[in-house]
């Protein structure tokens, strides 16, 4: 077991280098760099100032050399500064000589996205677990069918369309909820409770939209897991022993159906920091998705690389944790039958 | 097939998918207007007996555009998933069959691909290639094969230890014969199911790309770009967003129901 | 799930305490001018910083223009007047400009603002280490000096007519704060001290920027206390916010302007619509190095074959004007004798026939030397431009030209444009108020990255552009640029498609707006706008 974990951890290094190299190459394949987009179309821009900028950022050197510079900085965990004119630190805050603190871009965007995703994940699990169990228990009967249709409608709905309709209906026609943004303009003067209530109102539609799309996946997963378990020998045995149906389901079946969910949780860790560009632009939320999208459009290489690196490191970590948790929870794996 | 039809949800799914396919197939015959015929005097007309779904910002008939858009949207779905399936089956098969270094390499490749955001890949490729619908299909295909790969690999890993495979091997069957004759046919169920579900996702991905302006380009109509065109006027020209929205909703729902129905019907667990 | 959601809605309905609905506001009464209140508007992108010479983007200058002053500015009729400068003189040889400062100017922190700040700003913008695209105009200054606190003098090697315009564009920075700092990374960019009507109150990353009235303003104190700018990237969401009365100002698109607002009484009742001259024009440009665009007859034929009025009706719902010269309509630089090419497909066909194009296989597409008359129009993801392209495609097909449309994301698009890697392009030029367009049309400006990417080359035009730069007399300059516009129209290196109006919608609580808008647009007197006390938002305490 330890050996297995160790092997996986050792794999992460080369994998990260591979991912970052591929990302770096793709990034440079697309035409344009920061000098094409910045001050983009101002006839007063002089050719000289563009050259100056390219040199400053080593954009005039071969791609692999540039990757070398980047890797060298990464070894020191230095994510660098944005190419955009504000040159803010990509990852974490820095302090200048006068003591002014400049916040990092990821530092500011990450908590927002994390909060929304944790809330919507929680909502998904709270709703999808019972739906999945009910579905499995009433397989091929009316409740199962109703649930199936409901979760699929949630999945099939183009999110931005529903979002706009809800914004119009709840925000404009009925004036119940704010339309976009994270806080009201007077949020700073609110008490803690009022502030939370205000933030909650702002987050309601975005969280609802993002949860709705994810229901289908999780509830079907739970349902199929349950169905699997319900057909296993030990359940049949338990039933044959004359145990009450409730005991069978909650003591034996549900407990085992949990296992794959652990994997799923692990796999969704990286998803927690990846924001949705569409939702964030629509709801005016300054999160990771918008940050990344804007960086790609601007060809702001350090920001792109910073987000991709953190994202892929978390993905690999999530995969690993999922596998370990699964191995730990499943005695068959623990004993080394599989793995 | 009989068991699919016994499931009413799957029946509905099948009905929706067949209906949309037929509408797309016979679009030129059904469409009352040329989908690209511009008439600046008929801008944004509400639905009427002449224009069933109204007209858009250039006076084009939305119903006709929806029909031709169905062709594009469904084609994007089918071709993209076709590409993903071919790549996925191929890589999954050699990964699960040969195991060892090939397997490790392919699985790490899957990990890498899964950790690079899809839209970043799509943006880069679209920026680099001509942004035609073919490239959108290729891009969606190239970025969605990982699931199939894992699936096929898992099937192969479990099948290759089964008795009928072992006996075929002892009888002297070669690798290719084993893969194509024994392993692949027995892994078809999950492949088919994931293909059907994949079509649904690809239709959604196209609409999301359209929102970002990276989807099928004008003047060609797709459900995604008709919907995106209408989003600014959702309170006024509701017909511009309602019809494509519903079309996407029902089509994706249809393919999902069909996919689940197939999974259910072909699943040995639910036999009793 | 559904039940839960409905319950939540119910709770929200029960608890929502919205301010008085608009129907109770007396929006049509008249009120005397009053100070105070807050105006909220929205922006698509967040500024990267508030030092415009470094940020070099429209979002930044939109906010920074409330905070900083320039030496000169344009008045409501787009004539230059003093801002920090009281007056200016030009020497006999036209090479030296002397600016005389208004007395007793102060920065918002109370420190005196003098000509030394102007000199410092000039040093800043021309400094090699400063990351700015705007240095070129100011590098032509051979000597800049501040002999006393109220005098700033600049000398050029030869007369430079666009100089005054360039000084109207350069915002003066405070020397006492920025001296010795790295202008590119200074925290000042997010916490500026200026001298204009407003000073920065609060900047919430990615959410909003609040400006409050500057009591020490060099231009007098504005009526409205707070300007709040929210960052809302999606235009559809912005419009919803306007409908819900959460923002006061927004630029509408033609459909919102002429269809949605008028059709809704509750909107019409609270929102006033304005119309102003746009800031730029949209054109179809040809890569003149590529066949068939090296043939003037082909370019003119395409110009005749495009129905500009149809574009204005279809794309702008009539809310725009056709133009015939690259200047803002109504200004002195427009040559009144020039008329746009009329829509005349017969003339277009005739010109194409003269140029040797014939339809051999009657597929409707003209052919010359075995090559069909076909090309690709490149554009970025801009809805108006895409719609224009579709309309143009149809009209050109009617005269036998086959068009493909290719839309690219902005950075890739710019990459292709700047290396002249295209056949034809639909793009817009914003109109500067100075008539000099040397960098766009002069034949020397066609290297990769420069702005004559269509490779226009006309020796006569080159000469006029050079003359125009040396001539400071407005009347003589006018003649030069009228002749330049005439040659440009005749040559048809680009097809002027239209100039769209700016369509601001403003809540009726905002008063004191000039309507109809003067040439400078409705925002020219925004410092005098006011919000009568009874109409102010209750929830925003000043």
Description:
The complex is a heterotrimer of chains A (339), B (272) and C (542). Chain A is built from 14 helices and 2 strands, in the order H-H-H-H-E-E-H-H-H-H-H-H-H-H-H-H. Chain A is mainly alpha-helical and 339 residues long. Residues 334-339 of chain A have low confidence and may be disordered. In chain A, a hairpin with a 5-residue loop joins strand 1 and strand 2. Chain A has a two-stranded antiparallel sheet. Chain B is mainly alpha-helical and 272 residues long. The radius of gyration of chain B is 22 Å and the shape is elongated. The relative contact order of chain B is 0.16. By secondary structure, chain C is of the alpha+beta class. In chain C, 31% of the residues lie in helices and 20% in strands. Chain C is built from 18 helices and 21 strands. Chain C has helices at residues 2-15, 52-55, 58-67, 115-126, 135-139, 163-169, 175-178, 235-243, 254-260, 265-270, 296-305, 308-316, 345-354, 383-398, 410-418, 438-441, 459-470, 474-491; strands spanning 38-43, 72-74, 80-82, 85-90, 96-101, 141-148, 151-156, 198-204, 208-213, 226-231, 249-251, 271-273, 280-286, 320-321, 367-368, 371-372, 374-380, 402-408, 424-430, 494-500, 504-507. In chain C, strand 4 (85-90) and strand 5 (96-101) form a beta hairpin. Chain C is globular and about 80 Å long. The A-B interface holds A 11, 15, 18-19, 22-23, 26-27, 29-32, 139-140, 145, 148-149, 152-153, 155-161, 164-165, 168, 172, 216, 220, 227-228, 231, 270, 274, 277-278, 292-293, 296, 304, 308, 311-312, 315-316, 319 and B 7-9, 108, 111-112, 114-117, 119-121, 123-124, 127-128, 200, 204, 207-208, 211-212, 227, 231, 234-235, 241, 245, 248-253, 256-257, 260, 264, 269-270.
Poorly predicted ranges of chain A (pLDDT <50, ≥5 residues)?
334-339
Largest sheet of chain C: 6 strands, mixed
- Roughly how much helix do the residues of chain A carry, as a percent range? over 70%
DSSP strand count of chain A: 2
Outline of chain C: globular
- Supply the number of helical segments of chain A: 14
- Biggest sheet strand line-up of chain A: 1-2
Broad structural category of chain C: alpha+beta
Q: Over all CA atoms, what is the radius of gyration of chain A?
A: 25 Å
Query: What's the helical proportion of residues of chain C?
Result: 25-40%
List key phrases describing it.
heterotrimer; A: 339 residues; mainly alpha; two-stranded antiparallel sheet; 14 helices; C: 542 residues; alpha+beta; 6-stranded mixed sheet; 21 strands; 20% strand; disordered N terminus
């Amino acid at each position: 077991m330890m050996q297995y974990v160790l092997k996986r951890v050792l794999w992460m290094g080369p994998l990260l280098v591979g991912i970052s190299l591929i990302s770096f190459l793709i990034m440079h394949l697309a035409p344009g760099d920061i000098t094409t987009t910045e001050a983009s179309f101002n006839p007063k821009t002089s050719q000289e100032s563009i050259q100056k900028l390219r040199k400053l950022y080593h954009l005039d050197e071969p791609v692999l050399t540039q990757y070398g510079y980047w890797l060298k900085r990464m070894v020191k965990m230095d994510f660098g500064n944005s190419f955009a004119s504000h040159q803010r630190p990509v990852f974490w805050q820095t302090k200048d000589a006068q003591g002014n603190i400049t916040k990092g871009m990821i530092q500011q965007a990450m908590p927002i996205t994390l909060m929304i995703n944790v809330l919507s994940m929680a909502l998904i699990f709270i709703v999808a677990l019972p739906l999945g169990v009910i579905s499995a228990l009433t397989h091929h009967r009316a409740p199962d069918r109703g649930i199936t249709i409901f979760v699929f409608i949630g999945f099939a709905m183009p999110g931005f369309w529903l979002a706009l309709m809800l914004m119009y209906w709840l925000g404009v026609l009925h004036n119940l909820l704010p339309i976009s943004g994270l806080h009201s303009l007077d949020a700073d003067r609110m008490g803690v409770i009022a502030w939370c209530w205000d933030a909650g109102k702002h987050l309601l539609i975005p969280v609802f939209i993002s949860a709705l799309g994810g229901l289908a996946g999780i509830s079907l997963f739970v349902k199929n897991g349950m169905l699997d378990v319900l057909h296993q020998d030990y359940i049949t045995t338990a039933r044959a022993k004359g145990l009450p149906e409730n005991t069978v389901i909650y003591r034996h079946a549900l407990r085992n159906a949990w296992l794959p969910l652990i994997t799923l949780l692990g796999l969704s860790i990286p998803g927690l920091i990846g924001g949705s560009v569409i939702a964030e632009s629509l709801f005016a939320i300054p999160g990771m998705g918008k940050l990344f999208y804007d960086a790609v459009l601007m060809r702001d290489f350090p920001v792109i690389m910073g987000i991709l690196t953190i994202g892929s490191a978390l993905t690999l970590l999530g995969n690993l944790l999922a596998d370990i948790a699964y191995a730990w929870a499943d005695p068959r794996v623990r004993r080394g039958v599989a793995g | 097939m009989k068991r699919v039809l016994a499931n009413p949800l799957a029946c509905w799914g099948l009905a929706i998918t067949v209906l949309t396919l037929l509408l797309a197939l016979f679009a030129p015959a059904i469409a009352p207007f040329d989908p690209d015929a511009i008439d600046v005097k008929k801008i944004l007309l509400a639905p009427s007996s002449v224009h069933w779904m109204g007209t858009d910002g250039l006076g084009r008939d939305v119903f006709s555009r929806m029909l031709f858009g169905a062709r594009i949207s469904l084609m994007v779905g089918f071709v993209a998933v076709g590409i993903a399936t071919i790549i996925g089956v191929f890589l999954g098969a050699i990964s699960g069959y040969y195991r060892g270094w090939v397997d490790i390499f392919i699985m790490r490749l899957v990990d890498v691909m899964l950790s690079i955001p899809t839209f970043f890949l799509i943006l880069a490729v679209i920026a680099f290639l001509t942004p035609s619908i073919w490239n959108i299909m290729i891009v969606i295909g190239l970025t969605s094969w990982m699931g199939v790969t894992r699936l096929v690999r898992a099937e192969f890993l479990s099948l290759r230890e089964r008795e009928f495979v072992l006996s075929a091997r002892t009888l002297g069957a070669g690798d290719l014969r084993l893969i194509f004759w024994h392993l692949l046919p027995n892994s078809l169920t999950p492949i088919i199911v994931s293909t059907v579900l994949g079509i649904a996702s690809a239709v959604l991905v196209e609409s999301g790309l359209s929102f970002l302006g990276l989807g099928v380009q004008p003047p060609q109509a797709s459900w995604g770009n008709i919907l995106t065109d209408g989003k600014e006027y959702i309170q006024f020209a509701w017909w511009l967003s309602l019809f494509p929205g519903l079309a996407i909703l029902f089509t994706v729902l249809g393919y999902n129901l069909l996919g689940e129905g197939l999974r259910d019907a072909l699943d040995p667990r639910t036999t009793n | 799930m559904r039940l839960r959601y409905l319950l939540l809605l119910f709770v929200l309905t029960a608890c929502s305490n919205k301010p008085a609905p608009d129907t109770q506001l007396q929006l049509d009464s008249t009120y005397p001018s009053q100070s105070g209140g807050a105006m909220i508007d929205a922006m698509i992108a967040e500024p990267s910083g508030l030092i415009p010479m470094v940020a070099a983007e429209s979002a930044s200058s939109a906010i920074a223009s409330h905070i900083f002053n320039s030496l000169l500015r344009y008045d409501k009729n787009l004539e230059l007047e003093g801002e920090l400068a009281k007056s200016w003189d030009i020497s006999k040889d036209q090479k030296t400009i002397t600016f005389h400062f208004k007395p007793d100017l102060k920065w918002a922190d109370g420190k005196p603002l003098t000509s030394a700040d102007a000199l410092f700003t000039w040093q800043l913008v021309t400094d090699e280490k400063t990351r700015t695209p705007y240095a070129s105009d100011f590098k032509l200054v051979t000597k800049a000096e501040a002999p006393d606190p109220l005098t700033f003098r600049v000398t050029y090697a030869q007369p430079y007519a666009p100089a005054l315009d360039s000084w109207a564009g350069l915002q003066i920075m405070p020397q006492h704060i920025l001296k010795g700092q790295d202008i590119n990374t200074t925290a000042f960019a997010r916490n500026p001290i200026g001298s204009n009507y407003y000073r920065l109150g609060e900047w919430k990353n990615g959410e909003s920027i609040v400006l409050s009235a500057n009591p020490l303003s060099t231009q007098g104190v504005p009526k409205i206390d707070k300007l709040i700018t929210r960052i809302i990237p999606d235009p559809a969401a912005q419009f919803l916010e306007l409908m819900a009365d959460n923002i006061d100002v927004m630029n509408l698109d033609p459909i919102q302007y002429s269809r949605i607002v008028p059709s809704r009484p509750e909107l019409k009742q609270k929102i006033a619509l304005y119309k102003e001259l746009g800031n730029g024009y949209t054109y179809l440009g040809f890569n003149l190095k590529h066949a068939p665009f090296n043939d003037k007859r082909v370019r003119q034929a395409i110009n005749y074959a495009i129905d500009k009025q149809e574009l204005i009706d279809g794309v702008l719902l009539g809310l725009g004007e056709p133009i015939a010269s690259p200047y803002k309509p109504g200004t002195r630089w427009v040559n009144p004798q020039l008329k746009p090419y009329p829509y005349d497909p017969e003339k277009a066909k005739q010109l194409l026939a003269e140029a040797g194009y014939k339809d051999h296989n009657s597929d409707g597409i003209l052919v010359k030397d075995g090559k069909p008359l076909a090309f690709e129009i490149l554009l970025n993801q801009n809805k108006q431009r895409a719609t224009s392209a579709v309309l143009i495609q149809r009209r050109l097909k009617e005269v036998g030209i086959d068009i493909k449309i290719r839309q690219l994301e902005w950075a890739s698009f710019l990459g292709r444009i700047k290396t002249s890697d295209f056949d034809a392009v639909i793009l817009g030029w914003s109109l500067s108020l100075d008539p000099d367009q040397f960098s766009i049309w002069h034949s020397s400006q066609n290297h990769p990255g420069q702005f004559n990417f269509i490779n226009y080359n006309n020796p006569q035009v080159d000469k006029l552009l050079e003359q125009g730069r040396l001539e400071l007399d407005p009347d003589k300059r006018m003649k030069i640029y009228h002749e330049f516009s005439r040659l440009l129209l005749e040559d048809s290196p680009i097809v002027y498609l239209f100039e769209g109006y700016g369509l601001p919608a403003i809540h009726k609580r905002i008063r004191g707006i000039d309507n109809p808008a003067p040439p400078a647009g409705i925002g020219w007197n925004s410092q005098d706008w006011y919000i009568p006390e009874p109409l102010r938002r209750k929830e925003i305490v000043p």
